[in-house]
Amino acid sequence: MTIDCDDCVMQATTACDDCVVTFLLGHHPEAEVDDAELTAISHLAEEGLVPPLRLVRSDGSGAERRAG
After folding, report:
1. I want to staple 52 with a disulfide (CB 3.0 to 4.6 A). Which of 13, 21, 32, 45 is the partner?
2. Is the predicted pLDDT of residue 2 greater than 70, yes or no?
3. For the chain, what is the HEC assignment?
4. What's the pTM?
5. Within a 13 Å sphere around the CA of 56, how many CA atoms are in the beta-carbon half?
6. Domain tally, the chain
7. Would residue 51 count as lying in a domain?
8. Is residue 53 a contact partner of residue 67, using CB atoms and an 8 Å limit?
9. Distance (Å, rounded) from C-alpha 68 to C-alpha 65?
10. Interacting residues of 39 by C-beta distance below 8 A, sequence separation 6+
11. Domain of 9, in residue numbers
């Protein structure tokens, strides 16, 4: 899964500040994550250690899989 903040409609909202991508990589990165990494992010978010992934794609498809 490619996480590209430029394709996320949430980037102009406060949700961006509470997203795991911003938390780990800073604003507007592009990252490639696999299923194992998404699962790990999800578990970390569920335990409150990192914010959840708040990716919502601008094409309306949403993230294929959301973490947290």
Report:
1. 45
2. yes
3. CEEEHHHEHHHHCHHHHHCHHHHHHCCCCEEECCHHHHHHHHHHHHCCCCCCCCCCECCCCCCCCCCC
4. 0.55
5. 9
6. 1
7. no
8. yes
9. 10
10. 67
11. 2-46
Q: What type of residue sits at position 56? A: V
Residue 15 lies in a domain: yes
Bridge partners (DSSP) of residue 11 are: none
- Identify the CA nearest to 53 among candidates 35, 36, 38: 38
Q: What is the largest CA-CA distance in the chain?
A: 30
Q: Which residues contact 14 (CB under 8 A, 6 or more apart)?
A: none
Residue 9 lies in a domain: yes
For 28-64, write each residue's pLDDT tens digit.
Answer: 667 788 889 889 988 989 998 888 888 777 776 555 4
